[in-house]
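Before drawing any conclusions, I needed to go through one protein's amino acid sequence and its backbone structure tokens, quoted below without any editing.
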Amino acid sequence: GVPADDRQFFMDIIQAAPPPGSLNSSDNDYRTEEHPMIVMAQYFTRYIQDRIDNPRDDILSELAHSPYPDGTKPKLEELVNLANFMFGAGQDTSAKLIGNAMRFIVDEPGLQDKMREDPSIIPMLLEEVLRLEGSSKITARLVRKDVTIGGVDLPAGTRVAIALAAISRDPRRWDDPHSYILGRKRIMEHLSFGRGAHTCAGAPLARAEVRVLMEKFVEHTSHIDLDPAKHGTSENRQLDFEPSFIVRGLSELHVKLDPAPGFQA
């Protein structure tokens, strides 16, 4: 439901801002008027209020008119925060997944050829990328009551950072955990999108949009590579990741595309 005229502006301010979870603590001050989430919240306040007054067939209208189970309605601020976060998070994490996937497509021997021969493998290909290089490295929880998990006592009030990136490479759960294995058994059990009530609400959309994008990449190219002038060779890759304790993503990625026979731009 975000107006088309505003989308590029949002993308630009997200791109120009420090990464979420920046290792520079001053970058994470959400109280500054220039922070992208604060800037976008002003727009989403107008969007949500407009949907309250003039509902239409979009997700923002559904949010604006959805009650809690007890019949009460969320406050405008709560709706704005939810819509703002879902939009911002979905922009950045999906972009990171595209970049992380491209690394494997280029450097895993024969992988892009297999994709062209059988595009139906792309969903499973992406699940293994999510396990190894999921866009979110941690999630956080607040312990509501005293509990013991895995032999560790957690008193109520404890703030816990759950390292999704470590879980995905746990040798007690995954055979040869640091290797990329297409068709890995039980791959859908990875936790890169969370699990249970806290499963990422945007996971189905992220999977669909990145799958379609990858299908188009292999349909319209005969070969994909990373620019060796920027990233070196497959034997000696030079890649810079954003300095974030939350997000796993490249600062930049320069890709070279050879067009498929008969391709016309």
In short: The chain has a mean pLDDT of 91.
